[in-house]
Amino acid sequence: ALQYGREEAPVRKHDFLYLPSGIEHGISNPSDKPCRIIVMGYKIPRGEKVTQPPRLLLRANIDEVAWQTVGGHPDSVLYQLLMGDTKSKRDKLAAAHVLTSLFIMEFQPGGTNFPHHHEYEEEIYLVLEGEGEMVAGSGMNGIEGRYPARAGDAYFFRLNSTVGFYNGQTSKARILAIRSLFPRPGE
Known about the structure:
By secondary structure, this protein is mainly beta. It is 0% helix and 43% strand. It has a single domain, classed as Jelly Rolls (Sandwich), CATH 2.60.120. The chain has strands at 2-4, 7-9, 15-18, 25-27, 58-61, 77-85, 93-96, 99-107, 116-117, 121-129, 131-136, 145-150, 154-157, 162-167, 173-181.
């Protein structure tokens, strides 16, 4: 169960939530079944105007988010676009201030998301299922380091580094990805 301000809300398997800054919160597991959660937090830059969501609890379930292709990436990868910033039109929840995208990628056997880079964003990949080669490199110069990756591995990519994944040939792979703006001085 989620304690959120003065309220309590049940949490189902595959739920994801947005908790705005300044709201007291906690989580408990009243059942005898294991509960695995991932918590991410971001420091709101000084001077950033934070808008509270229209309703206190923004929650959705991964099972209710459609799989889709994303422009600029091959059809061998499908995406579930879970959460974006407050201006997002394509994500299930549009609420974040520093986080720009939270999504799941499902790679077909032999699939890739084409190694690429993000000039102004950092990114984290958490391999949920499968194995393949994680790509990390130095940016636009085409240098592409490949590293073995399997379920449970997490990779952090600094801004403007090469980021990508090549799936193995035998089974699907799934990756949870989190992308956020890198704080820039004076912004």
